[in-house]
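Hi all, posting the design record for the shared folder.

TITLE: backbone redesign
STEP: 1 of 1
STRUCTURE INPUT:
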């Protein structure tokens, strides 16, 4: 069974790989938001971003509390 994905273009968005403007679309696949550039094929998913942000958070100190 094939399901049709609803894809939306992001106005003014620039592709991080090819720097093309207005070529990035957003869609939902298996409850994960995904970005795709129609010009170069670059893709990025919400799950990848969350893993990268978690790795950054582990290596950084937000603040130190001294009572």
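Okay, here is what came back for every position:
SEQUENCE:
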């Amino acid at each position: 069974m094939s399901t049709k994905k609803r894809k939306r273009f992001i106005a003014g968005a620039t592709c991080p790989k090819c720097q093309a403007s207005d070529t990035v679309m957003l869609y939902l696949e298996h409850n994960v938001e995904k970005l795709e550039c129609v010009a170069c094929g670059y893709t990025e998913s919400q799950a990848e971003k969350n893993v990268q942000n978690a790795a950054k958070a582990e290596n950084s100190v937000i603040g130190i509390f001294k009572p």
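COMMENT: The beta strands are 8-9, 24-29, 32-37, 43-45.
Let me know if anyone wants the other runs.
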